[in-house]
Write a structure and sequence with these properties.
By secondary structure, the chain is mostly beta strands. The protein is built from one helix and 40 strands. It has a 14-stranded parallel sheet with strand order 2-5-8-11-14-17-20-23-26-29-32-35-38-40, with no helix packed on it. It has a 13-stranded parallel sheet with strand order 3-6-9-12-15-18-21-24-27-30-33-36-39, with helices on one face. The chain is elongated and about 70 Å long.
């Protein structure tokens, strides 16, 4: 497949299909690529722009791979994965400047970004960079940028986050193939709510996991949701809080993470970490420094359990609480909080996620390269 195609492409009930450009080249599609009820579909080198909807729609399909594909400048989303589908985006690739978001993953589906052959960019979309909902899974293993996504919602809840996880969904962000960066998103870096779970973890030496300069907040976690940070996570440059927990949210932070330079002098709720509304923060190690306001601000029946963390130069002190919050810590000075008991802190260490085996994806790409290379 070469040149430009001005039509929609529909793939329905196909098995073991390879479709794409000659290896090393690209093909342009002005329209939509739809994959329905299919298995083992491999797409290569497709640059898709659809002025009337989404670029790629994958529904009720399994083992679908997009390698060196782009979904940019669409009126809908760059990629939609729905209804028990599983998809791999193999870099390089991009899903930028779309009218309704970069990528959506819903209805018990899964999307894995494997940017081992080049970066994947999800930026400058109207809406969320990545929206995950209805029990779905989104995972990126690094060499990924999610930035400058814009809020278009007129409702109480904005949508211009880098990653928005709703309705018992799961997200994993790692740095196996390079830095994962979530930055300059208008509403915030991460919106994690409605019993969803997000893990950000270290699986290599190729870079950090960076959440920076995302408007008001780095990560907003609420409504029974959890955020876990496992080493080499940097959260900085937000005008309210690096992490904001509310409505029975939980934070687990383990290892040398850095939460720094968040908050602003005109916002009384500024802090490195805000813990509010029956929420819990559990810290083992890490640095919370140079934030406007306290390192941790705990309010309304919330609790903080901190051992091994270091606090430097936060303008509002180390940890500050209202009269209903509690702290258990190995620190003895600079904490304005009640301690509920003298039993010390419990050990709740948990193992970080493990990088998956990507041998099958590498072999599949090698096969396509072999038969689709110019003769």
């Amino acid at each position: 497949m070469t040149g430009t195609c001005n039509e929609n492409v529909t793939i329905t009930n196909f098995w073991n299909l390879n479709l794409g450009a000659v290896y090393g080249s690209t093909a342009t599609i002005h329209g939509n690529v739809s994959i329905l009820a299919s298995n083992s579909v491999f797409l290569y080198g497709l640059n898709v722009t659809n002025l009337a909807g989404d670029a790629f729609d994958v529904t009720s399909s399994h083992n679908v791979t997009l390698w060196t594909c782009t979904g940019n400048g669409n009126s809908g989303v760059g990629l939609s994965v729905a209804t028990l589908s599983d998809v791999v985006v193999q870099g390089p690739g991009s899903f930028d400047t779309n009218g309704a978001g970069g990528i959506n993953v819903t209805f018990q589906s899964s999307l894995n970004v494997l940017a081992m052959d080049g970066p994947v960019d999800i930026s400058s979309n109207h809406g969320a960079g990545v929206g995950v909902g209805d029990g779905a899974l989104f995972q990126t293993l690094g060499n990924t940028t999610i930035e400058s996504n814009i809020n278009t919602s007129t409702s109480v809840r904005p949508n211009g986050f880098g990653i928005q996880a709703l309705s018992a969904s799961k997200v994993q962000v790692a740095n196996c193939f390079g830095t994962s960066q979530i930055s300059d998103n208008q509403s915030g870096g991460i919106d994690d709510r409605e019993h969803s779970q997000i893990s950000i973890w270290n699986c290599g030496t190729n870079g950090d996991n960076v959440i920076k300069d995302n408007g008001p907040v780095g990560a907003e976690v609420g409504m029974g949701s959890q955020l876990a940070l496992y080493s080499n996570v940097v959260i900085s440059g937000h005008t309210r809080a690096g992490i904001d927990l509310y409505a029975e949210a939980q934070l687990y932070a383990y290892g040398p993470n850095v939460i720094s330079q968040n908050g602003s002098s005109d916002n009384p709720r500024s802090a490195g970490v805000m813990v509010d509304g029956n929420s819990e923060a559990y810290l083992r190690g890490g640095t919370i420094s140079n934030n406007e306001g306290p390192g941790i601000l705990a309010l309304v029946n919330s609790s903080v359990d901190s051992v091994g963390a270091t606090f430097h130069n936060n303008s509002g002190g180390i940890i500050t609480c209202d009269s209903s919050a509690y702290v258990v810590s190995d620190l003895h000075k600079g904490i304005e909080c009640r301690t509920p008991h003298n039993l010390g802190s419990g050990d709740r260490a948990a193992a970080a996620p493990v990088a998956p085996d990507v041998t099958a994806q590498k072999n599949q790409a090698a096969r396509y390269k072999k038969f689709a290379s110019p003769k």
